[in-house]
From TrEMBL:
Transmembrane segments: none
Cross-referenced Gene3D superfamilies: 3.30.70.260
Organism: Alloalcanivorax xenomutans
Family assignment from sequence similarity: Belongs to the UPF0250 family.
Protein name: DUF493 domain-containing protein
Amino acid sequence: MAIREELWEFPHTMHLKVMGAVDAPLEDAVVDIIERVLEQEFDRPRNLSARPSSRGNFIALTARITVQDKGQVEALYRELNACPHVKITL
């Protein structure tokens, strides 16, 4: 994912959307990646919401995060896309 840094202001608060199968440990995997990349504890109750798909096969997570620079954005998407539990990242 190529980030055009001139279009961003850092630090930047964003809503990261991730989808995966409902029977996978998606939430734990996503939180682990966020905490590792951002190097800070992630407050799940305040910053993570989950919504099941209409048929109940998938779950969509929305994480409110603050990134400090372009490298964190790129690392988040790289690690999330490499995670076997993640189907889609937005």
